[in-house]
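ASSEMBLY PREDICTION REQUEST
Request ID: AP-0331
Submitted by: J.K., bench scientist
Number of chains: four
Total residues: 312
Priority: normal
Notes: Please return the full assembly, not individual chains.
Input sequences:
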Amino acid sequence: METAWDDQLRTAGLRVTRPRLSVLGVLAEHPHVDADTIATAARAVHPSISPQAVYGVLKALVGAGMARRIEPAGGTARYELRVGDNHHHLVCRGCGVIADVDCVVGAAPCLAPSDAAGFAVDEAEVVFWGLCADCQVARRQHSNATSTATGEGVRS
Amino acid sequence: METAWDDQLRTAGLRVTRPRLSVLGVLAEHPHVDADTIATAARAVHPSISPQAVYGVLKALVGAGMARRIEPAGGTARYELRVGDNHHHLVCRGCGVIADVDCVVGAAPCLAPSDAAGFAVDEAEVVFWGLCADCQVARRQHSNATSTATGEGVRS
DNA sequence: GTCCTTAAGTTGACTCACTCAAGACAACAC
DNA sequence: GTGTTGTCTTGAGTGAGTCAACTTAAGGAC
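STATUS: Completed
Returned structure:
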C-alpha cells in the first residue's frame, strides 16, 4: 500500500525497506507515539522488527526530515510525521496525551525573545501544559469523591 | 550562612538539613545545572552527600515550589531556583547552555493556543532554540575552514 | 537539656530509554 | 543475475533516574 512512502523515502535518499514502511504506517495512524509503542504496533505488520531497528528507522526519518521528534518534559521521546509547518503541542499533565495546535504566527521562529542574549534563535518551541477534557472530568469526580470524605484536594 | 534558606525550607514545611542547604547553595550560584553537577558541587560543601540524596532533595524542592525542573529535549533535567515569574529559556543547540528570557507577557499561561482542543491550559512553556554567541563564532570558523576544502556546510 | 517521633539521607539493587558494534541480510544499480 | 553497501538483527552496554530497607538526625514535647 502507501506507495507515497516509497517515493518520499527514495527522494530523501533512503532505501525502501519493510521496517521503514511499517514505522511510517504506524506514525501515519498514531501521531505522537513513543518508540516502544511504534515497535509494538509495527510488529503487527512486520513481526520480526527489532526495537533497535525502530530506533534506527526513526533516527533516519528524523535525519531525513520526514519525521519530527518531540520530548515533553518528564516523558519519553515521541515522534510525528507532521513536519515543516511549525505547529506546537498541547500536553495533558494527567495522562500525557498530546494534541497538535496550529501556530498562530506562521513560520519558525514564530516568536522572538525579549532579549536574545546574543543567541541566534531559529526556532521557538511552544508547549501548552494543562488537562485534557477527559482528565478534567476525572479530576473533578475524584475531587468530589474525596473532598467530602477527607477534605483532600489540590495536587499540583 | 544563607539563613534565608532556613526560613524558606521551614515555611515550605521541610526540615532544614545540610544536604538541602548545600543543594540550594549550588543552585543559587549555578542556575540551570543537572543533578550530577549539583551532586559534584554540593560535595565541596558536604562531602558525604549521595547522588540519591541529591535526587531526593531536588524532588522535595520542586514539590515545595522552591525550585523548577526544566528538561530541554535531548538533554538531562536541569534545575533552577527562579520560580513563579513565568520566564522562558534560550537553549544553545551547540553546547547546550541555557539562558533565561523574561516573559514578554507576564503571568502564566502567557500565551493561549489558537485551538485548545478541550484542554484547560495552565502554562505555556516556551523554549527558544538557537546558537549562543560562542557557538556562532566556532561554527563560522569551522565553516570557513572546511567549506573551502570540502564544500561542507549546512547542518540542520 | 533529654527523649522520642518521624522526616530525610545512605546504600545498593534495579528499571527504562536509548546507544554502540559486529555480523547477516536485502535493496537496488549495473 | 551479480556485487556493493546501506540497513536490520542480535547482544552487550551506558547513564539518568527510581525503589526499598535500613540508619541517621531534625525538631517538637517534656
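REVIEWER COMMENTS: Chain B touches chain A through 41 residues (CB under 8 Å).
SIGN-OFF: pending second reviewer
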